[in-house]
Amino acid sequence: MDPILPGTEDHGQAPSRRPPRDPLTADFAPSGPVPARTTRLVCGDFLLTVNPVDGGEIEPCPPHQRPDSPTRRTAAGRAEYERAALPPAPPGLRLPDTELLERQEIRERLVRLLTQGRTVRLTGPGGSGRTALLDLVAEDGADLAPDGVVRLDGLNRTPDDLLRDLFHTVHDAPRHRLQPDELRDAVKKIGAVVVVDDLECGGAALAELLDAAPECAFLLAATPDAPAPTAASDVEEVSLPGLDRAAGVEILEHSVGRPLTEEEAVWAGDLWFESEGLPLRFVQAGALLRQREQLRASGGVVDEYGVFEDVRAPADAVLERPLEEEEAEEVPLPSLAEAAAPAPLLASRLGPSARAALRIAVALDGEVPHPAHLPALVGDTHADAALGELLGCGLVSPAGPRYRLAAGVRAQLEAAGYDEDAPAQALTAARHYAWWAAHPSVTPERVCAEADAVLAALEAVVPGTEPAAEDEDEQACAVRLAHAASAAFAAGLHWTAWEQALHAGSEAARLAQDTAERAYFHHELGILALVNGELDRARAELEASHGLRTALADKRGTVAGRRALALVADRTGDLPGLAALMAEEPPAARTAPLTPAPAASPAPYGFGDETVVARRSGAAGERSGVRATARRNLVAAGSGALLVAVLGTVVTLGMTSDEGAGRNPASDVGGNPSATQDLDDGTLGAVPRKDEPAPARAATSHPVTPGPDGTPGTSDDPEPSTTAGTPTAEPTGTKGTGGGRTSATPTPTPTHRGSSTPSTKPTKPTPPTSSGSSTPSGQPTDTETPTGDPTTPSTTSTSASGPADGGTASASEGGTESGSAGPPVM
Asked: What b-and-e string marks burial along 398-421, b requiring 16 or more CB atoms within 10 Å of the CB?
C-alpha cells in the first residue's frame, strides 16, 4: 500500500472477509476494523506490550520469552543497517560533490591519532566542512579496529542514546532494550572507531560516554558553542580553520565550470574576507553564479529576483554559445550583502515546490521532510525533486539519516518573511504526520528515522490546541499526532523521543480537555518510568491515569493500569501502592452496611477482549483501600468464629437427640443446605443444582425457612428480590422449647472443610416444603409469624451479627443476646 495516497484502509481500517456482492459496488463497501498494531519488547526483566489503544501492558518477562544473548551482525547485515542510516538520495539531477580542499594535513593527523587509540574532538563552526571531513576520515579508518567504523549522529541525542545506537549498529537485537548494566557490559566488548557528528553533550556526560566504551576510539565533531569535555577525559582538540582565498576561488570555478572573470574574481575576494573562508559560503556563491548565467541565457528576465517559471531555463542547463558583453550587464553580480546572506536570493530563483519546501522547513525548526512526504505537504506530485535543487544550492545539508537547513539559512529566510505562515505550515505537517505515523504500512523504524521532524511539528502545534466544539467530533491534531507518534517511538526503541512526545501529548490533551487522552499519556509516562526504575514517579503517573480512567469507566484501560500498579507495589513493597487495586470494590460496598447481594460470578481480569469491571474511586467519605481491607479482614475473622460455634453447637445437639430417629431426613431439607450440613457427603458443602436431586443428609435441628406468611411455603415460590442495604433472608419465626420465639436469623452459608472464613456468596432462602410435611425434630408443628424484634433465642437457635462498622459477632447456647439481629456478614 502506498502510505502517501490515503485509501479506504485509513486510520487502522483494513478490508475484512465478507460475502460476495455485486462487483460494481464491491469497492464502495466499508471495510471492517483490524486489530491495532501492537509490539512486544523485552526491557530487562520486563515484557512490555506497546498497545496504541489502551496503553502499554507490562509484566515480568517469562523465562521462555527472554531473548538469547545479542549476536554480532554479519557483514551483509551490517552493511544493510548502515545503508538505512544514510540520508536518502534526492531524486533528479544534481551537481557533483565539491572536492575537499586544504584539508589533507588535518585528515592525516586525525587518522594518526585514531590509530593510537586517542579520542579526538574536531571543532569548527557551522558550514566549515566538518561532515565532509568526517566522511574521508571514516574511509581511511575502516581497517583500524575489529568492528570497523561506526557513524553516529549526535544531534538531539543523549549519551545513553549514543550508546544504544552503538550497540545496535554492531549487534542484532531486535525488540530488545537492555538495562543500563547490561548495555554497558555489551558495549565494553566493542572495539571500533566511533565517529559522532554534531555532538551536543560535554563535561560529565561526555566522560560517561567515553568510559562506557573503553575499547573504542572516538572522533567527535562539534561546534564551538558545544560544552567542552572535562580535563580528565584526555580528549585531543583539533580546530578546523577556514579556507584561504585561492581555495575559495577554486570552489567557484568548479561550480560554474569555467575560469572566473576579473570582476567575479574581485567579488570572490570580498566574499572570502567577509565569510572568513567558510566553505559553505563559497558553495552558495557558486550557486548564485550558476543562477546568474541561467538567467542571462533565458532572455526572460523581468526583475532582479526571478523569472517567469514557464520560460526559466532548467537548473542544469548548459549554455550553447558564449555570452555577449551586453547580455552580461543585464544581470549584475550579487552585492556583498546578498552574497553574505544568499538564502533569500537563492530561494527566489528556485521553483515553487522548492520554495514551499523551504517554508515548511522554517516552520519545522529547520527540519526538511523526507522527499516522500513533500508531494503530500506541498501539493505537487513532483515536489520530491525539490530536495535536489535545495541541496545543489547549499541551502540544506545532511544530518544523520535526514536533511536540515544549512547553517544560518533559517535565520536568513525568516528575515525575508518565510515564517509568516509558519503556524499553518506546521499544522499541515502535523496532520500529515499524524495520519502517516498511525498507518499500518509504516514501520516504527521509519517513524524513528524522522523523529526530529515529527517532534518539531508536534511542538509547533501544541500551544495552539483548543477544546473541540460541542458539535465537532474530531480530535485535536496535536493529540492525534502525539498518540500515534509516541506508540511508534516506543516500538522503535527511540525512548528519548517517546518521552518528549508523551509530555507534549499530555499538555495538548490538557488544553483540548480530552480526559481519555490525558489518562492515556499519564499511563504511558508511568510505564516508561517503571521500566526505567523510577518507581515513585511511576506510581504517581499510574494513579493519576487510573483515577481518570475509573471516572470514564474505561474497563480495558483500568485493568492495564491496575496491573502496572500492582507491579510497582511488588517492586517497592509498599502497601500504599495497592490503593489503586481497591478500586475494584464498588463504593456502595464500602459505605453501606455489609449485606448479602445476588450471587454473581466474579469478573475476569485480563488483557485483550476479556471483560473487566471498572468502578469509580476517590469519592468523598470513602475509606482508603488499606483501611477497607483491614476492616473486611476483621469482619471475616469474626464471622469465622461465629460459624465454628454454630457448627459445634448444632452438631452436638444433633448427636444427643434421638427424636426423629427412623425418619427420612431428605424430606426435611430444603433446596439450600443449612450450616449444619454434613461435609462428608461428597458435596463439599456445595449447593446442588436445581436439575439434579439433593443427596440425603443428616437431620438438622435448624428450622425450615418460612414463607412470606410465616408458614412453610411451597417449593414453587420465587426467590425474594434483594436490594442494597436490605437483608436478603427472611427471619425465621418458630417457637422454642421455652415457649418463646427464636431470634430472626438468616441461614448462614456452609463453608468448605478447613476454612475458617465464611463464603461471601449470599445464600438463597430455603425453598419451603409442602404443607403436609413434618417439621424438624424438637420443634412444634404450629408456626407463627414474627411480629417484633425477638430478644430471647431458644437453645437450638443461632444468632449472628454483622454490623457495618466492623463489630464482632457472637453465638450463644441457651442464653440471651442484646440488640436486634443484623444482616449476615459477607
From this structure: bbbbbbbbbbbbbebbeebebeee
